[in-house]
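Q: I'm a student working through a structural biology exercise. My instructor gave each of us a protein and asked us to get a predicted structure, then write a short paragraph describing it. Mine is Aldehyde dehydrogenase. I'm not confident about reading structure output yet, so if you can add a plain explanation after the tokens, that would really help. Here is the sequence I was given:
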Amino acid sequence: MSSIDNTSPLAIRSILDKQRASLLERDPLSAAQRIELIDRAIGLLVDYQDDIVEAVCADFGQRSKDFSRVTEVLSPLMTLKQTKAQLSEWMKPESRPTERGEAWVQYQPLGVIGILSPWNFPVNLAFGGLAGALAAGNRVMIKPSEFTPQTSALMARMIASVFSESEVAVITGGPEVGQAFCAQPFDHLLFTGATSIGKHVMRAAAENLVPVTLELGGKSPTIISRSADFDAAVTKIITGKLHNAGQICLAPDYVFVPEESLQDFIAAAKKVVATFFPRLLDNPDYTSLINARHFQRLQGYLSQAQAAGVELIELNPANEDFSQQDHHKLVPTLLNNPSDDLLVMQDEIFGPLLPIKPYKTIAEVVAYINAHPRPLGLYYFGSDEAEEQLVLSRTTSGGVTLNDVIRHVGVESLPFGGVGPSGMGAYHGRDGFRTFSHAKAVLRAADGPDLMRPPYVEQVRQIVSSLITR
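A: Happy to help. First, here is the predicted structure for Aldehyde dehydrogenase. I'll explain a few features afterward.
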């Protein structure tokens, strides 16, 4: 069985050893064999779609089933299908120019890939990593989050129903299992989660010199230019922020608004929420926070900001009372220009709170962004080409969406990853295939003089001297 709950490091290691032995005892998988594995994963998403939606909703307490079907079933399904369609092309050796014979890069499986997937999109991010790892011909071990126990258990059953433990295995359990998982000598480790946890993952991986891809999130800034279609921008920002109640690593974390448009932004935001979420508390499309700890963390941000005199603007169209509820829903709230010493401006929010930063010039916006850790995403709304290029060239972020939020993550042909504190490495599409492959350099040497082999006769000296030129 592929699921092991509260397992020991020794048991995890035995699965890794089984997978590595299975990989080494046979030829690398052909394109057809890899496609067959991907087809199994595709079948799981199709066959278990209703179970996936129900499990995720149960783990969150309240989450839109339609949103879950799109993000947890359709999105990874499309990733797997696109991977399947293109992997034969990705696998082809790449010729490289040389005057010394014939040179090429040959991609081969790294071996056993470890995937640590998070709770906010538990199936999406597990199967998204699985797509690239299988395309590259690897074996895979997945450790899903303990914050979504029903979904994690379901994934373990799903995977075990179509994959042998030597092909793909799911390891379930709490933080101690996660620590044991990170300490294994994988051939590559993919982690999606908080920056604070990413440091521990990288430290554990370093003990075995395991290369890592870290997708860590951060505080993704959003800029509304004076040249923007203002109402359209506010609609996209607010609806994007409220996807999954803000529990998205790429959610807009704070928004720059021209100072003269501050009140217009607040009015427009209220209108957007009233349009899409006329009621919130019992609305099945408005997601609950994952657990009490995250709910209390966000309440703490609000309490600290309120004590500091920050204006809090609740986006609560029906003026509902959230004090008595079965879940952990939080009223969407704007924070008017909170200072940088407040936690809401230091931590990744990961919830339906949105600080507003009024600005005079785009130069001060760029300076502010550059004075803070590099984010996973950045969003610019506007039609001023010179200003757009200024933002693109003078700021550094994992990725950018122009005139919308979050959507670049869904383009499989683009690399997805962070930079600096928001992560390292990239995956998705061809970039994922390469991340989980070893690019082996190969040279078929041509006959000719070897300038490094003695004796260094006068003819060799002359050849060397003729080559040393400006």
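A: Here are two points you could use in your paragraph. The longest helix spans residues 65-91. Confidence is low (pLDDT under 50) at residues 1-6. It's a good idea to check both against the output above yourself.
Q: Great, thank you!
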